[in-house]
Amino acid sequence: MRMQKVLLLGATGETGGSILNGLLDSGNFQVTALVRPSSSRKPDVLDLVKRGVKVLIADISSPIDELVPLLKGFYVFISAISGMALLAQMNIVSAAKEAGVKRFVPCGFATVCPPGGVMKLRDQKEQVLNHIKQLFLPYTFIDVGYWYQFSFPPLPSGKTDEYIFPGMNTKMRGDGTAPNLITDLRDVGRFVARIVADERTLNRYVFAYGEELTEREIYATMEEVSGEQLEQKFTSDQEIQEEVVAARKLLEREPDNSEALGRVASAEYEYSKYVRMDNRAIFARYLGYLDARELYHDLKPKRFVDFVQDLLDGKVQRPY
């Protein structure tokens, strides 16, 4: 089989790095990383070159007629751009259409959520998707739930403290029984490599995940593997909704404040996942997503219990 030429935006990021590993490990793709000029000499970009990854230096905000020649010959374009810069994809979408790219994968790679006022980030993704559809550009939209790496509570002993992102999971939400799709970040790329090579996923939404667990189940697994007893504290649904209102008001007052946008994103994730309970397999199927675990029975994602053991064995890196 002829290897597909893939152009990957965001290869040095957390999601992009996993996707890069998945594509390379599959052996089915010729991968080029698209890097902005200001980052071309950064150590993580130089590391890509050392790994044998081709690098294309370009600014995606450049005029479309300058971008089109650079994109010609690529079969798949995958965007793992920062969640704070989603609308910056509009230009490269137009260029991909003119260049004849056969499949565009916009930045999704998050929790399942319907568009239309629930999450600002999801609505921006929908703007990009609408642009893609208006251009009749072939696409695949992929969501992967929430990462295992962001889904575990701290242990009383402090054994996992170095792997915990600041402020992460110090309390259960609601009563701790909302089920959520969660995935080991290391498995994201494995799923993506299978999905973008599959004609069944063309012009479709696909969700991939490791497990669907409640916070109570996550706590129980942490206790079982670690042998420690965790304290259970709770944040009510009302508190979650009040934080959404407060965060949105702040962003309205300070629309250019990146910290305010980050606060809104965090609050709306909590609301969507734990109050609305959007991030579930049953809801993904209702929205029309294909289930990657049903498509690829031979792909066995890491179980959360095994992730926890990796955590205790020091085999997990803290994102960011």
Automatic annotation (TrEMBL):
<keyword id="KW-0521">NADP</keyword>
<dbReference type="GO" id="GO:0016491">
    <property type="term" value="F:oxidoreductase activity"/>
</dbReference>
<dbReference type="InterPro" id="IPR008030">
    <property type="entry name" value="NmrA-like"/>
</dbReference>
<protein>
    <submittedName>
        <fullName>Isoflavone reductase family protein</fullName>
    </submittedName>
</protein>
<dbReference type="InterPro" id="IPR051609">
    <property type="entry name" value="NmrA/Isoflavone_reductase-like"/>
</dbReference>
<dbReference type="InterPro" id="IPR036291">
    <property type="entry name" value="NAD(P)-bd_dom_sf"/>
</dbReference>
<dbReference type="InterPro" id="IPR045312">
    <property type="entry name" value="PCBER-like"/>
</dbReference>
<dbReference type="Pfam" id="PF05368">
    <property type="entry name" value="NmrA"/>
</dbReference>
<feature type="domain" description="NmrA-like">
    <location>
        <begin position="4"/>
        <end position="244"/>
    </location>
</feature>
<keyword id="KW-0560">Oxidoreductase</keyword>
